[in-house]
Amino acid sequence: MSDRRLQILDAAATLIAERGYNSTSVDDVIRGAKLSGKSHFYHYFRSKEELGYEVLNRQFERFTERGLAILREPMIDPLERLSLFIDAVVALQSERGGRGGSPFGNLAAELADAHEGFRVRIEAVFERWASQIRSLLWEARPQLHDDVDAVRLSRFIIATLEGAVLMTRVKRDIGVLEGIAIDLKRFIGTHVRDGGAVALQGGRGVE
Amino acid sequence: MSDRRLQILDAAATLIAERGYNSTSVDDVIRGAKLSGKSHFYHYFRSKEELGYEVLNRQFERFTERGLAILREPMIDPLERLSLFIDAVVALQSERGGRGGSPFGNLAAELADAHEGFRVRIEAVFERWASQIRSLLWEARPQLHDDVDAVRLSRFIIATLEGAVLMTRVKRDIGVLEGIAIDLKRFIGTHVRDGGAVALQGGRGVE
DNA sequence: TGATATTAGGACCGAGCGGTCCAATGCGCA
DNA sequence: TGCGCATTGGACCGCTCGGTCCTAATATCA
């Protein structure tokens, strides 16, 4: 992948995260990536749609490196990994200063009904994310109650995190996400055999 | 409020829920509400922005009538009301066939960072919603553990529901929302003194 | 009947959109 | 030196956008 292509992708990713796909014009991307003109952009991408697809892929790659990687750390207890992963999501959002929500959730809300091509790609992203959590839960199954439904629990975790990031954006208050993260860990703890006191810190109401 | 105004508001609400605010043109609204032309529309609304604000208000009014009303039913046990409210959210989304997510969540994702006017209005909507849940939790406090944080729990409920509706939209599968609703009730149940077996049905893993 | 809103309908505006095309540069490499 | 590619820069296209303006037709009620 050429440098310029990555440069365009990064500029577009930032803009789309801030303003959404439709409200980010190709001219905005050109300005953001400091290209010389339209022809320069269309030298690298066939269309704005293609750009959008690749931005989504790249955002997921980044998320895989900076967030999901924690789920696969082999030396850490699986449930603690899950806790660290939730912390990482909070930290990632904190870095952005509350603005610019989840790159997936944003596109989902904007395009899920309007653009089938994006919908299926976003669905695939969430599925890959969920499958990572599922395999972690599988790894942790000796510590969990027998009747834990990994599919349902993984969806619950993702939905809650996505919703929490959205609320944080609206209220411009990272504390919202932090509080929900604590409660989410508590909920996961209720699936653990001994009550969840081991790996998932944060008892009821403890800040 | 004149009939025509309401007609425009309803048409716009449907379109904006489906396609978002930016992707709904004034001409679309005119076609949807069967107006004769632009001047006819601008006879009732000063701008598209004003229309958007009033659509948001109207959506919240509708949600107050059809959803939040359950939270205030005086003859039902508060925790059971909360359960019924969650069921109502599921039913509302089910009616829409999985498409068209939360009218608030959609606008939030699309406009929270880009348009301050919308952001503060959406924040107010979520705050009013949260306050209804808080006062219900206050009512239910004899049944709850002493250390339940009503502010945090109400935010958790809203975030999870919003996230779940979004996931349902992406996967086009109402079962996602139904599963998360069950888990959400279970989580609320963990805040109840006797273990939550009374008002909130649905034990662990029971479908 | 006449005065007054409301409704209808279309022409028009400046701006931005995604996208195409073209001509002129640099710039390394055989 | 000359070939080929990346880069620069701008003109241009058809279309849609939010919004304005102006003129009739139609309903309402004194």
Explained architecture:
The structure is a homodimer of 207-residue chains. Chain A is an all-alpha fold and 207 residues long. Chain A has two domains: 54 residues, Arc Repressor Mutant, subunit A (Orthogonal Bundle), CATH 1.10.10; 141 residues, Tetracycline Repressor, domain 2. Chain A contains nine helices and no strands. In chain A, helix 1 packs across helix 4 and helix 7 packs across helix 8. Chain A is elongated. Chain A binds a DNA duplex (30 and 30 nucleotides) through helix 3.
Short description:
Chain A is mainly alpha-helical. Chain A contains nine helices and no strands.
Name the features.
homodimer; 207 residues; mainly alpha; Arc Repressor Mutant, subunit A; Tetracycline Repressor, domain 2; 2 domains; DNA-binding
